[in-house]
Structures
1.
Amino acid sequence: MRIVVLGAGGREHALAWKFAQSPLAEAVWASTPVADAEPGVRVLPALDDPAACAGFCRDQSIDLVVIGPEAPLVAGWADELRAGGLTVFGPDARGARLEGSKVAAKEFMRRHGIPTADFAVCRDASETKARAARFPGVPVVKYDGLAAGKGVAVPDTLDEAVDFAAGAFTAGQSAVLLEERLTGPEVSLLAITDGRGVVLLPPSQDHKRVGEGDLGPNTGGMGAYTPVPGCDAAWLAGMEKLVFEPFLAGVAAEGFDYRGVIYAGVMLTAQGPMVLEFNCRFGDPETQPLMCALDGDLLPSVWSAARGQLAARPLEAQAALCVVLAAAGYPGTPVTGDEITGLADARQIPNVKVFHAGTRREGDRYLTRGGRVLGVTGVGETLVEAAKAGYAAVGKIHFPGMHHRRDIGARALHPRE
Ligand code: AMP
Ligand code: GLY
């Protein structure tokens, strides 16, 4: 099978690396700057629109296109590529609206009985104050549209909530969501689906705040690990009934062509699990530890889902833990163009894989190119082993201003603290 992976982040590097190991894969084209250093991976040229992508796929006799990021999915790339006869892993634009519009997602959840926090929709800044005051405590405020991880505030005061909403409208949002503030640990539940059935991936946990102890501003994710203690097979079966069966009923009722990943961000509250958000793609950075942890071949599930005939097979997994190395300034404007050293030393450490997210190559050197630079991932039979390997590799890598969290997986590794 000849496969294209669209998208240039750490998630797509992890997917391309995993697919290339499949006996079914003849070659995988990917945009990661390390494409030509990965066995079985080739360099994907820049493809700026679906027509360019379709042309490349025809020329190279591509069998499967996997769309990594949300933006092209929301923009309808899957629809266009399928209309051109390609087999695509990624939902149509209507399905992708579950991520592209938080209001659409909440209304979908309400229509189909998926547990989620109470909410109100504001279409104008002047509405926010009165609506926010009706919530018990201060509501969470969310941009309706995509905002690259920066569209959510968990404010402490009503004034802050109103200010954030006003900023959202100023930034061009046409709606703002107010949501009852919940508390509890969060779990990322990703499933591969053909729109009729699901295969759940092992539960994982992301670390969204920039600082240790979950302090500081939200980021795209500073690290992730799998498995999550307490979220065992029986629990997962319960989540399939609670969240994914009603999701599938909703997809059928609304006529989405949903072949791809459905990612539910779930908070485990005292009142039971609640879905905070849906994403229409693999998580980043959750995919990095997931691809390392999965023992078997993921490609049959992805390929069968893309063809609308999901072959459900249980996925066995080890433990894995990914530490994101971020550039100075992130999650604000990152400093870029600095040389990264120690990558070869990190590679010498067993059971480690370093995924490139925000790097570029210049000759033999790698330079920083974005906020989240690398995803250093350790794997092992236990999370303790995975963390040991991952952090040993982190210790080898350096660039000016590099920062990372030293407490990835702490909740699982030191449950009483
Ligand atoms: P979202 O993009 O909707 O998942 O929100 C980003 C982050 O904001 C989540 O991972 C939570 O940490 C936090 N968050 C979102 N919704 C709520 C809520 N209703 N109550 C408390 N925290 C929330
Ligand atoms: N890790 C959060 C996300 O992928 O949206």
Note: The chain has a mean pLDDT of 95.
2.
Amino acid sequence: MTTLLVSQTNYEEHLTPKGHPECAARLVAVAEALSAPEFDALVRQDAPYGDLFLAELVHDANYLPALRDARPAEGIRSLTSDTVISGNSLDVVATGLGGALAGLRGVLLGEVDNAFCAIRPPGHHAEIADTSGFCLVNTAAIAAREAQRKYGAERIAIVDFDVHHGNGTQDIFKDDPSVFYASSHQMPLFPGTGRPDEHGVGNIFNAALKPKTAGAEMRAAYNEIILPALDNFAPDLIILSAGFDAHILDPLAQLEWVEDDFRWVTGKLMDIAERRCGNRIVSLLEGGYDLKGLSGGVSTHVATLLNG
Ligand code: ZN
């Protein structure tokens, strides 16, 4: 495979309080992991600024203006109990979006087979009208809409293996049969949504995993729920909300996935991408808060994207 790696250069400028799990050190760990010789074949690109007005494709019209107004002149301001904004946060969100759109462009123009975008902050908890869970703007959702609007892709699948349910992504697409959303996540856990009986208009598939379960339960859930539904949907493009907080080392959740589980799920999704959409996968980093678990998960995921 030809795999594009898109990296942010201004990721440190989104400030979070000391001890906050969503910190700049996450992307330092990811960059270090992906600098190993086994990744020499990656096509590398710095994330350009993306147009934040595109947030209107998925968020309320007053969503972005409210975020702009919330920026403090200095320091950090809390938006919710766990979500913060600093003076330059929206610049970082803009390169996160620009990175995702660069990945989208490379994949949809056929310049590369797939792409991984190492970006922060995560986005999948950002709902139509509300920020939450460390997320300011729902980057994966905007990328899905841009794939349709700019590139003419019709059927977009978003698969989310972050340990938390992507309440924002489900909220945005729950009434839209052109976008498929499937999530595997620990339940009970923040944000509390993602019950298996939440089906949207037949386009939502939730696999709830019990705390302390590991790869066997995850693989069964994908084999029984997510993979057949994804195959049946026959997407033109697969966007991954790639979180690595289901890793056994992660401090925010109690699933017990190891590197081989991230390899397995990536490979299974690639099998469907090969059969249904010419290998087209754009993978966006979401969560992952233990630096060792994050770098191990990302290494395995990207190595699989690259080598099959
Ligand atoms: Zn998460």
Note: The mean pLDDT is 98.
